[in-house]
Amino acid sequence: MVEQTNKIISSNDVHLFYGRNEALKGITMDFNESEITALIGPSGCGKSTFLRTLNRMNDLIPNVTITGTVKLHQQNIYAPDTDTVALRKEIGMVFQQPNPFPFSIYENVVYGLRLAGIRDRRQLDEAVETSLQQAAIWDEVKDKLHESALSLSGGQQQRVCIARVLAVKPDVILLDEPTSALDPISSGQIENMLLELKDQYTIILVTHNMQQASRISDKTAFFLQGHLIEYADTKTIFLNPQQKETEDYITGRFG
Ligand SMILES: Nc1ncnc2c1ncn2[C@@H]1O[C@H](COP(=O)(O)OP(=O)(O)OP(=O)(O)O)[C@@H](O)[C@H]1O
Ligand SMILES: [Mg+2]
């Protein structure tokens, strides 16, 4: 029988050093299409570092050494001929603090499309509407698309940042604690949106919020001190973890 696999990203024995400090100590894991994977673990365990290795955002940090491979659709993204701009279009990223550009809402959303040389007004208008709808913020902003994105609330800004990522039609969306700066209502809106989007995207989410991980993720990976301790279906991680460290963490005994 041929094994069916829908894996889209595979990391194999990824080590990452900041100078001489080894922050990732051999991470091997695959991510499946159309799933939400949560990365959890105590502060400083390497979650953000690992997330950034998936679209080469660590390249922007000086003194970083990375070994191992990360493959997107079977291609090693660390191959010397990788076009990192194109890579980051395929693997978009949303950060903990909403970071809209100091432009209008409209210009924020079309930013990546303009960079790609798209000028057709109708195409841009359509992308703005579709992306803002997918990001569950269209109704709130449709009458003020040309106002500054900075005039929005934090939760609205975060959804505009998600729309900005969606507009370039990535395959994968990385989110680093996207709701930690938001109130429960805004967080809930973003969680619902991620659930709606997951059929079309692969979503990898760092979170400190255990309820959030258990509510929305299909798989959960527990990191500790640069190691991947356990990676399994979210239900297994939360109800029947196989490693003592995982159990201690999710039951609040440390971290
Ligand atoms: N830019 C950097 N330069 C040097 N060391 C760094 C840098 N970023 C992270 N580190 C170190 O790498 C380790 C992992 O950090 P990382 O930010 O990946 O952890 P994290 O799991 O995301 O933590 P948190 O939950 O607090 O966000 C830490 O020891 C941290 O000090
Ligand atoms: Mg982090």
Notes on the protein architecture:
The structure is a single chain. This protein is α/β, with parallel strands linked by helices and 255 residues long. It has one domain: P-loop containing nucleotide triphosphate hydrolases (Rossmann fold, 3-Layer(aba) Sandwich). It has 10 helices and 10 strands. The strands form 2 sheets. Strands 6-7-8-3-9-10 form a 6-stranded mixed beta sheet, sandwiched between helices. Strands 2-1-4-5 form a 4-stranded antiparallel beta sheet, covered by helices on one side. The protein is globular and about 55 Å long. The mean pLDDT is 95. Adenosine-5'-triphosphate binds next to helix 1.
> Which class best fits the helix and strand makeup?
alpha/beta
Radius of gyration: 18 Å
Helix count equals 10
Number of strands: 10
CATH topology: Rossmann fold
The parts where pLDDT drops under 50 for at least 5 residues are none
Biggest sheet character: 6 strands, mixed
The average pLDDT is 95
Helical content, roughly? 25-40%
CATH architecture name? 3-Layer(aba) Sandwich
Order of helices and strands: EEEHEEHEHHHHEHEHEEHH
Q: Give the overall shape, derived from the CA principal axes.
A: globular
Strand content: 25-35%
Give the CATH class.
Alpha Beta
Bound molecules: adenosine-5'-triphosphate, magnesium ion
